[in-house]
């Protein structure tokens, strides 16, 4: 469905009218209609469709259906239904075991897809509602002075809580940081005593320790806190997110009650480590948001990374815990930024010695309890919820939450909750709840995507030719019959074969524009009253090209998507008068015979250029393509020598000249005899039609001299022979010279021997 808002600006008022529109796609049944849009309704009236009309005309807005003759009682539109499954009244006091602060508790909704349902949710904070406060303290060395004051805090803290409720409980936990480098000195002695050497009261390094379960006993709180001593670490940020995560997920060990306002008061003077910082110590395993408490110590402190802010916020919200950050002035801005990412949290500035912590907690609690934020969990896909607060200090309507501020204890407020589903679903649930409060409202949502028609139980209804029954006004045929009124018996053929004959190229049956009746398409009428036509209803006479916003320019008839123009007009939309004036060339031809004149403009054949198709930039060079014809026509030689007249006379008119007069295309090519032929070409009307002027004289190279070749060959052989003889003679001479020198040397040796 679609909704259009048309704004009219009047002098006295601005009005916005909403026009109901049913945007239909493929409609074959009442269910298809209901799912197609929020304003779509179905007419089940028999004989509502006219001859040739498809059943899709039964689907439209109520106004259009009535206008077409459908009776109001025959129009089907599923209505929204709201049922309060559980609606216990709000409690005034918290003296009952489970005080009710939110009403109703369970709602069942059934509504049309795209439609909205609005219901009211009431909230009243019960007076004296139990409070569980977990005091989580930083015991790093810089908090030494604060610890002394916290040990005397019990009496004042309980007194402050008793002004709020008689059912207060307090627990206590402490944290420092992971006991690995670079956060803590891992020297054995330093692990046991990470404080200064002069400080005798120092406990061993630790990550997070749960000290005291929730207790209503002031003395027990005082005794356990008094036993605590300071510890220490190396870097400034602490493991506070580690401690808060364990305090949130280890509910049975902390002692959180099921029905109570849960508070964590975090006191520190330093920042915090978060997800990813563990890599500095080689800790790569991400935090898995599970409880790992052994002997009241966080056992996975050195094995698992710090949690992310998102993980912590999710667990605090899931367990209805509201944190109060009591921090020193130096880190106030850091925790204010953190508070923006954690719903229902407050930040208070702690004095240097923590003396103001009780007043800080009381103020923060009052701010938290006076602000009521209604939101949701586990919202299904394609569901939108909008909250509209109804109270004195209401926030703006929102689709993620609704906020009422400055709400007093015992004051009843309400929220209008609007639920919209944009797709079909069945029994999808989500919860609506105030942040920090246990009470919830469970909403079970289903959508009406099918029609609940009251049909006659006659399986051989006359409307269906006695071969089917009526379902929401249309025929559901018995086996062996098909058609809009079951009028076709398929006989020996199966229905699939008959329907296949109504499909073009295995496409949609009758192009979605008709009904397949006995293997042939029976085309529907169009919205304007004309009919689709063609073997597969593929044609209509309404979707041709327009000119001046008129179909076929008002100068022709639309037939199957193409314009058939009246005499004297042409063009795709009959937008042009028939004329060749703009296509005429200087030689009085039309586009030089190389194109057609349409709308007084040349449409050239491939390669030829506008405006008159005179030149062809992409065509092959005619000097090369016409060379064989030029050679045979001018000099009776070349490849076309034997069939020159047949091959060339129709495309080239030639003349033999001494000097060319054509200047358009000058060519010089080498023929099959190796001679250079010079000729000029002029393209005549048409594509393959040329006039050629061929120079009578070819430039041929002189033939080689046979005498010179023979003489040169003989002289070369003689020269080579002489050179070989001289080389042989040189080798013999060198050998003889070597033998002679050898002989002379032996002769000298023999004379020297005789002298001795």
The N- to C-terminal Cα distance equals 140 Å
> What Rg is obtained from the alpha carbons, in whole angstroms?
51 Å
Tally of individual helices: 16
> Helical percent range?
10-25%
* Largest beta-sheet details: 6 strands, mixed
How many E strands? 41
Shape annotation: flat
Strand order of the largest sheet: 6-8-23-22-18-20
Q: Which residues sit in consecutive blocks of at least 5 with pLDDT less than 50?
A: 1-17
Estimate what percentage of residues fall within beta strands.
Answer: 25-35%
Average pLDDT, to the nearest integer? Answer: 86
Structural class: alpha+beta
Account of the 3D structure:
The protein is about 20% helix and about 25% strand. By secondary structure, it is of the alpha+beta class. The protein is flat. About 35% of the residues are buried.
Write the layout of secondary structure elements.
Blueprint: E1 2-9, E2 14-21, H1 30-36, E3 41-43, E4 59-60, H2 62-67, E5 75-76, E6 81-86, E7 102-103, E8 106-112, E9 116-124, E10 131-138, H3 144-150, H4 154-162, E11 168-175, H5 188-192, E12 208-215, H6 218-226, H7 240-249, H8 251-254, E13 261-268, E14 293-294, E15 297-298, H9 309-318, E16 321-327, H10 332-341, E17 346-349, H11 357-370, E18 372-377, E19 383-390, E20 401-404, E21 412-421, E22 428-434, E23 441-448, E24 468-471, E25 474-477, E26 481-482, E27 488-489, H12 495-500, E28 514-517, E29 520-523, E30 546-547, E31 550-551, E32 556-559, E33 562-565, E34 569-570, E35 576-577, E36 595-598, E37 601-604, H13 622-625, H14 627-635, H15 644-648, E38 652-657, E39 665-670, E40 676-683, E41 690-695, H16 706-755
Parallel strand pairs: 8-23, 10-11, 10-13, 13-16, 16-17, 38-41
Antiparallel strand pairs: 1-2, 3-4, 3-5, 6-8, 7-9, 9-21, 11-12, 14-15, 18-20, 18-22, 19-21, 22-23, 24-25, 26-27, 28-29, 30-31, 32-33, 34-35, 36-37, 39-40, 40-41
